[in-house]
Design a protein that fits this description.
The chain folds into 2 domains: 238 residues, 2-Layer Sandwich (Nucleotidyltransferase, domain 5), CATH 3.30.420; 227 residues, 2-Layer Sandwich (Nucleotidyltransferase, domain 5), CATH 3.30.420.40. The chain is built from 19 helices and 21 strands. A 7-stranded mixed β-sheet has the order 17-18-16-15-19-20-21, sandwiched between helices. A hairpin with a 3-residue loop joins strand 15 and strand 16. The protein is globular.
C-alpha cells in the first residue's frame, strides 16, 4: 500500500524548490524534484516579480512530482512564499500587473507619511506588526498615490502564495499566517482591520476571506490537471508565509526555545499563545505574525545573510568570485571583534556596494573599517550573532519567558561558523537543522489538513526522527560579553 505523498512548492526570493514528501509510519521521506531561479526584474527604475514565469515552474513542479510519486499517489500540493508582496486581479480574473518586489523604491517615504494619518502607536496597537517600509499597507498606499486606476480596476488582492493557489484552482483565499504580515489584520478582532482600511481610504473589498493553514482550497482546475498529468489533485494552503512553514518544522519540545529562521532574512522569535502587543514590543519593533494551531510567532526580522550575499555579489563584480564556504573559512581566520555593525541599519537595506557601506558605517561610528574580504565577512558574522543575542534577551523580557535553547532552521543552519558564533554570543546551545524547514513545514500542514497527521506535534517528532541535527555548545563567554557591550551601544545610538 502506497504511503501518502505531497508536494511542497517553496518560493524564495532567490529561487524556488519543489519537494515531495512521503509520510511513512515513523519518518518523513523527502525528495527535491525541481529547482528554479527567481529574482527581481528591473524595468526602468522599478523591480518586479516575473509571475507568469514562476507559474510555469510551479506547473512543471507538479508534473515532476506526479512522475516521482507515481500516478495516483500525489495527495496534495501546497505553495508557500515570502510575505508582504501581492498581485492585483481584475474582474475577469486576470493579473492586472506584475507584482512589485518588496525592495522596489515606490514605498520610499510612504511609511513616515502614513504616520501623519494614523500614528505609529495606533497602527501597532491595531495590528501588533513590526514596522518595515515594504509592508503591504505601505505598498497599497503607494499604489493608491501613484497608480490609483489600478486599485479601481482590481477585484481582488492576493498575496504571492495565494495568487498562485488561485491560478491553480480558481479560488481566491487569504491564508491566516500570510494575512497577518500585511499590517492590515487585527489579531484581537480576528479579521481585517476596518479602522485602518477606513482611515487610509483603502478598498477593503479587495481582501479575500481568511482561512486557517491546512485548509483544502479545492482541486486543480481541469486545464491545469490535464497539463500537469495530475487531474483532481487537492491544493492545500499550508502556512503560506514561508517563516510560518519553517517554524512548523522546528524539531522542538516544550516551550523554552526560540527559533532563528536563517536565510536572506533572519527571523528571530518564539511561539506564543496570543499576540504580545504592549509598550515593550513597540519599543523594540517586534512583530506578532500568525502561526499554526492557534499560536502566534512573536519575533523580529533581522537583516540576515543578505549582508553577506550582497558582499559576495560585489566581490564577484570586482573579480573575486568566492563560494560561501571559502568566505566562512577566511572569516574564521580573521582577528575577532575588529569592527561591528548593526545589521538593521537602513544603509544596508538596498546598497549599491555592501562592503563599502559596511566600511562607511565603521568610519562613522569611530571604528577602523574592515580592510579585506576576511575582515568584512568576520564583521558580518559576529554582528549577526550579537544581534541575535540582543533580540533574544528582549524577547525574554517582553514575553516573560526564559529561552534555554535556540533552534536554527533554513539555509543558514548549514553555516557552521555562524551557528557556533550564535551559541557563543548568546550563551545558549544551538540546534541546527533542518535546512529545508520551510518545505518540511509545508508538507506537514498539508498532511494535517488532509488527515494524514494528527497535528503539528506529530509532524515535529517526524522531523526529529528523519533529519540529522547538529548541536553547538557555547564557549569563550567573556570575549563575547565585552563585544556585546560595544554592540549594544552601537544599536541603541542608531549608528550615529
Amino acid at each position: 500500500m502506497a504511503h501518502p505523498g505531497y508536494l511542497a512548492i517553496d518560493l524564495g526570493a532567490e529561487s524556488g524548490r519543489a519537494v515531495t514528501g512521503t509520510f511513512e509510519k515513523d519518518r518523513l521521506v523527502v525528495e527535491e524534484v525541481h529547482r528554479f531561479l527567481n529574482g527581481p526584474v528591473r524595468v526602468f527604475d522599478h523591480l518586479y516579480w516575473d509571475a507568469l514565469s514562476l507559474f510555469r515552474e510551479i506547473k512543471a513542479s507538479i508534473g515532476k512530482a506526479r512522475e516521482a510519486l507515481g500516478a495516483g499517489n500525489l495527495n496534495g500540493v501546497g505553495i508557500d512564499s515570502w510575505a508582504v508582496d501581492f498581485g492585483l486581479v481584475g474582474r475577469a480574473g486576470t493579473l492586472l500587473a506584475n507584482p512589485r518586489h518588496y525592495r522596489d523604491p515606490r514605498t520610499d517615504g510612504v511609511m513616515d507619511a502614513a504616520f501623519r494619518t494614523v500614528s505609529r502607536r495606533e497602527i501597532f496597537e491595531r495590528t501588533g506588526i513590526q514596522f518595515l517600509p515594504f509592508n503591504t499597507l505601505y505598498q497599497l498606499l503607494a499604489v493608491k498615490q501613484q497608480e490609483p486606476g489600478l486599485l479601481e480596476a482590481a477585484d481582488r488582492l492576493l498575496m504571492i502564495g495565494e495568487l498562485f493557489t488561485y491560478f491553480l484552482t480558481g479560488e481566491a483565499v487569504a491564508e491566516f499566517t500570510n494575512a497577518t504580515t500585511t499590517q492590515l489584520y487585527d489579531p484581537r478582532a480576528g479579521a481585517w482591520s476596518d479602522e485602518l482600511f477606513s482611515a487610509f481610504g483603502l478598498p477593503k473589498r479587495l481582501m479575500a476571506g481568511i482561512v486557517p493553514p491546512g485548509t483544502v482550497v479545492g482541486p486543480l482546475l481541469a486545464s491545469v490537471g490535464e497539463e500537469t498529468g495530475a487531474p483532481g489533485v487537492k491544493v492545500v494552503v499550508p502556512a503560506v508565509h514561508d517563516t510560518g512553514s519553517a517554524v512548523v518544522a522546528v524539531p522542538a519540545r516544550g516551550d523554552d526555545w526560540a527559533f532563528i529562521s536563517s536565510g536572506t532574512w533572519s527571523l528571530v522569535g518564539m511561539e506564543v499563545p496570543r499576540p504580545v502587543i504592549d509598550e515593550e514590543s513597540l519599543k523594540y519593533d517586534f512583530t506578532n505574525e500568525g502561526g499554526v494551531a492557534g499560536t502566534f510567532r512573536f519575533l523580529k526580522n533581522v537583516m540576515g545573510l543578505w549582508l553577506l550575499q550582497e558582499c559576495r555579489r560585489t566581490w564577484a563584480d570586482q573579480g573575486k568570485p568566492l563560494e560561501y564556504a571559502a568566505i566562512a573559512k577566511l572569516a574564521e581566520e580573521a582577528p575577532p571583534f575588529s569592527a561591528l555593525v548593526d545589521p538593521d541599519d537602513p544603509a544596508f537595506f538596498r546598497p549599491a556596494d555592501m562592503p563599502a557601506e559596511i566600511a562607511a558605517y565603521c568610519r562613522k561610528t569611530g571604528q577602523r573599517p574592515p580592510a579585506s574580504v576576511a575582515q568584512t565577512a568576520r564583521c558580518v558574522f559576529e554582528s549577526l550573532a550579537l544581534k541575535y543575542r540582543y533580540v533574544i534577551e528582549r524577547l525574554e523580557r517582553a514575553s516573560g519567558r526564559k529561552i534555554n535553547v535556540i533552534h536554527v532552521v533554513g539555509g543558514g543552519s548549514r553555516n557552521e561558523l555562524l551557528n557556533q558564533m550564535t551559541a557563543d554570543a548568546t550563551g545558549r546551545p544551538v540546534i541546527a537543522g533542518p535546512a529545508e524547514s520551510t518545505a518540511l513545514g509545508n508538507l506537514i500542514m498539508q498532511a494535517v489538513g488532509t488527515g494524514t497527521l494528527s497535528g503539528v506535534s506529530q509532524g515535529r517528532e517526524l522531523v526529529r526522527a528523519s533529519v540529522p541535527l547538529k548541536e553547538y555548545r557555547p564557549r569563550a563567554a567573556s570575549a563575547w560579553d565585552d563585544a556585546y557591550g560595544r554592540f549594544t551601544a552601537l544599536v541603541e545610538r542608531g549608528g550615529a
